[in-house]
Fold this protein.
Amino acid sequence: MTTVLPVILCGGSGTRLWPLSRSGFPKQFLVLSGDGSQKSLFQQAIERIQTIATPQIELGKTVIVTNEEHRFLALDQLRELKNVQASLLLEPSGRNTAPALTLAALYAQEFGDPILVVTPADQTVKEGAVFTKALQEAVEIAKEGAIAILGITPSAPETGYGYIKTGGQSTVERFVEKPDVQTAKQYLEEGGYFWNGGMFVLKASVWLAALKEFRPDILAATEKSYQAKTQDDAGDALFLRPDKESFNAIPSESIDYAVIEKCPGSRYGIKMVELDAGWSDLGAWDAVWQVGKQDLAGNVTSGDTLISNSKNSLVHASSRLVSAVGVENLIIVETADAVLVADRDNSQDVKHIVHQLEQQNREEKNLHRKVVRPWGWYDSVDEGERFKVKRIQVKPGASLSLQMHHHRAEHWIVVQGIAEITNGDQVITLTENQSTYIPQGQVHRLSNPGVAPLEIIEVQSGSYLGEDDIVRFEDTYGRS
């Protein structure tokens, strides 16, 4: 029996898929595949690996490496899947994929020396059975102590991917950086070149040994952070937190640069398994259009849309009717607080808009108007000088932190469910159509003691209404 641990690398912010993907809700947690599935890319990545189990392959606990800020997004989506046990390794900051995999390998040693099946959380695969077979073949290679990498059968002279050059018996000869168009065309004509999809299968001990040889500094720094970790039980999942200070000192490097590209010709054998399964990494909106369900005119639509005399375009509506007339080769993406219009051929350049948002310190880079929180969500429906209106929903049994604000007062109106409200020294219960007032500087808390969602309208008033005007005294979610 071979023990396999799925490792889902769930970092990154997907800036080229703005405005739908933002740092507070990145693309791996979005439903984007266009195949009718209502599962996010993250959920699909987890479920794809579950299919490789056989009488000879035993699947262990899924290991998810993600950002500390996304832990409740990941946990909520995990709970929607059936029979998936997981441990979440929470990075306090992004240090690229080599430290992420090292954390997973160090954790995996607690289960002996399992084989790690490593995949990013933001990819799509159309032919699941083909993917399963390729991973099972890769597991057989890894059993012998070699490293297996999945090489994507190229369908075009793509310049956005690195390439794998293979020799006899699928042995990897070398890795090639992202080429220009002419070089990519030459690769396809020659044959033996495949896209590097960032999916690896190898024993935990092999990764740690290779990292010790090629980048001992990354290994030492990650070990130091991991050994000082803390952990807490989230009920159906385990949160493991590496030490923040030492983690931030780890050199930032990718799996490829740190180890994989150094393996050909070394004592660490590396072989490629070809994958021709309709793979995409959804790196930009053009890729979303390519994998989407196209109508007879080549249009891909999502949400409340109307299209006339248009072709080869993607139109995504999140919160209102979006119509397009007489357009061709366009990307149109609408959210409650931002609209993107781009030529499909230039969809990679959306990152330049995100850079401008960052330079201007605009909130649209990080958060949507509707913001997910561990206790539920809030939607900022209106605001003006000295006021803001929010619609807030609290999950059954959940509560916000015990908190206060220096610069604002709040009026709460219950529109659905039961609210238990701490307001200074008082604790009151309100139901539909009842309201209360929280004075500026008053310690308060909102809780839902019921079995149905609680929904309130909050009206804030004051001289400053920013989200950072919160002083937390107690918090169920470790934010105080």
